[in-house]
Amino acid sequence: MRQLLMGVLLVSATGQAVAAAPRVNLEILTQPGLAPTAAHQWYEALTKLGITNLQIRSGNPGEEMGIETTGTGSSKSFRVTGILGTDNTLQVPGGKFGMRDSGRIQTWLNNLGTDGVEGVTAPRAAFGMTPSQIEHIHDDLRRPVSVSTVGMTADQAVSAIAKSLRGPVRLAPGAGGELARVTLEDELRGITSGTALAAIARPAGLVFAPARQANGKIEYRIGPPVKGEQTWSIGFTPQQRAVQVLPAMFDVLNVEISEIPVSEALTAIQARLNVPIIYDRNAMALHGADPASAPAEVPGKRLSYSQVLGKVLSQAGMRYELRVDESDRPFLWITTIKPAP
């Protein structure tokens, strides 16, 4: 797909019109003392980017840079006022460019066209998104999983969860086959979609992350991890203290555990706490941690559930973390004491 910026048509590889970009009128105000040839050089450089609605003139006292938005939808347009300083740098809201920054200027224009004023003036948050985009993503991924996932293949679970999301879920080449080879053992029903999708992707050696399409809309991607790129977390560290997030964890009781595997002890504790458990099966496989074969032994004494969990899991070379999903619902992330990627 090729794109001519500043209010012209996006054209697909077949030559068919796809969508009209918002029209942008760019007016550049020059400061006194600017070299006489600078304005001409900038005019040539900007028109080479496809900018057709361009005016460069001397600035008047009181004029400032800014962006005005008019219209909505297909009739939306932007009027951008920039300042060309005596140091030959172009300043626009959210950007400062030199003559050699054509790539950065084009990115700025793309962000304006797809995300509006916020796209160029708001600080970028995670995944290169604006704060409002991240809020939109959290709202979408907050939808709870409505199907039982135990016994499903990972690709079936992804397909079922994707149906409830506003953004499409895209699989990288080969990712579908990797997901199909994984049979889910954890019950993710009731967990939010973002946390669930991240958890489903991990046993297949894949990661889940939001991304922006060329038109600025949000999509979700599942594929192999790429060095330096962010991925969506399997839950989040609670903002509140653990005792506020899951008070039952700190209830004290008389405990004595003997002659049962760690897995059975965990099942009993989970039933008492009424909290979901998600296992880090990648780390378990890597380090040979098997709670079904490791014996659990806790001599009789008064302990909190938190203390019991720590003691029991350590006997299988494992530990727990209290996390929350996108709706701040708590769950236990069970992983190994030895770290894993």
List the helices and strands and how they pair.
Elements: E1 2-3, E2 9-11, E3 17-20, E4 23-30, H1 38-48, E5 54-58, E6 66-70, E7 77-84, E8 90-92, E9 95-97, H2 102-115, H3 117-121, H4 131-141, H5 154-162, E10 169-171, H6 175-180, H7 193-201, E11 207-212, E12 218-223, H8 242-245, E13 252-261, H9 262-273, E14 277-279, H10 281-287, E15 295-304, H11 305-314, E16 318-324, E17 330-336
Parallel strand pairs: 4-5, 4-7, 10-12, 14-17
Antiparallel strand pairs: 1-2, 2-3, 6-7, 7-8, 8-9, 11-12, 13-15, 16-17
What does this structure look like?
By secondary structure, this protein is α/β, with parallel strands linked by helices. The chain folds into three domains: 2-122, no CATH class; 132-223, Phage tail protein beta-alpha-beta fold; 242-336, DotD protein (Phage tail protein beta-alpha-beta fold), CATH 3.55.50. Helix content is 29%, strand content 27%. The protein is built from eleven helices and 17 strands. Helix 5 packs antiparallel against helix 7 (193-201) and helix 9 packs antiparallel against helix 11 (305-314). The longest helix has 14 residues, at 102-115.
